């Protein structure tokens, strides 16, 4: 094999590697920007559903096709440099309130099985899990969110309803730590 053929083959192989790397970087950018993103839970506001420092995948594309639903766990822009993760409690047109530690949506009691452990803890301490509030009407283009750890959550009770354009996406599954891999529903 001549030196010229070997040099041409090396250049072609380098070009192919550069193209593959460029495509990979482009695909990673598109996926991260429009489809999925990692998120690290910061704090205990979603305890026991999610735990501090767990890493999860957020589906950013889901809300291009539909709006958040009651029960979805969403990530949203809460502050200029900080995103929050909370559960959707009420959607546009709903009226939400808590009376005697019971969540009411449009005047009807709502079961919250994801609060079972926290509710037991609150009962043992002789305090309500969720203090009374409301009624609050949720406007068009908004959602009302609360953390599952109601006694330690800075959520719509303090910051008000969240505009839909602030929602990043829906939490899909925990991927770290490996021993805690699970779907986040």
Write the layout of secondary structure elements.
Layout: H1 3-35, E1 36-40, E2 55-59, H2 62-65, E3 73-79, E4 82-91, E5 95-99, E6 102-105, E7 108-109, H3 116-125, E8 133-137, E9 142-146, H4 156-159, E10 162-163, E11 167-176, E12 182-183
Antiparallel strand pairs: 1-2, 2-11, 3-4, 3-11, 4-9, 5-6, 5-8, 6-7, 9-10, 11-12
Structural summary, described in words:
This protein is of the alpha+beta class and 185 residues long. The protein has 2 domains: 1-36; 41-183, Umud Fragment, subunit A, CATH 2.10.109. 28% of the residues lie in helices and 34% in strands. Strands 1, 2, 3, 4, 9, 10, 11 and 12 form an 8-stranded antiparallel beta sheet that branches. The chain has a 4-stranded antiparallel beta sheet with strand order 7-6-5-8, with no helix packed on it. Strand 3 (73-79) and strand 4 (82-91) form a beta hairpin. The longest helix is centred in the N-terminal third of the chain and has 33 residues, at 3-35. It starts with a helix and ends with a strand. The model has no long low-confidence stretch (mean pLDDT 89). InterPro entries: LexA/Signal_pep-like_sf, Pept_S26A_signal_pept_1, Pept_S26A_signal_pept_1_CS, Peptidase_S26. One of its GO terms (biological process) is signal peptide processing. Its EC number is 3.4.21.89. It comes from Brevibacillus composti.
């Amino acid at each position: 094999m001549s030196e010229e053929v070997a040099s041409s083959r090396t250049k072609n192989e380098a070009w192919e590697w550069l193209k593959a790397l460029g495509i990979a970087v482009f695909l990673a950018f598109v996926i991260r920007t429009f489809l999925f993103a990692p998120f690290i839970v910061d704090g205990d506001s979603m305890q026991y559903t999610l735990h501090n420092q767990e890493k999860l995948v957020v589906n950013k594309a889901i809300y291009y096709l539909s709006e958040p639903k009651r029960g979805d766990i969403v990530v949203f822009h809460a502050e200029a440099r900080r995103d929050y993760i909370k559960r959707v409690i009420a959607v546009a047109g709903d009226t939400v309130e808590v009376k005697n530690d019971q969540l009411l949506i449009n005047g009807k009691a709502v079961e919250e099985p994801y609060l079972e452990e926290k509710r037991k803890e609150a009962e043992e301490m002789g305090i309500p899990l969720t203090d009374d509030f409301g009624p609050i009407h949720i406007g068009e283009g908004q959602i009302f969110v609360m953390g599952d750890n109601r006694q330690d959550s800075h959520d719509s009770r303090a910051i008000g309803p969240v505009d839909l354009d602030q929602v990043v996406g829906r939490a899909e599954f925990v991927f770290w730590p490996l021993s805690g891999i699970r779907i986040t529903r």
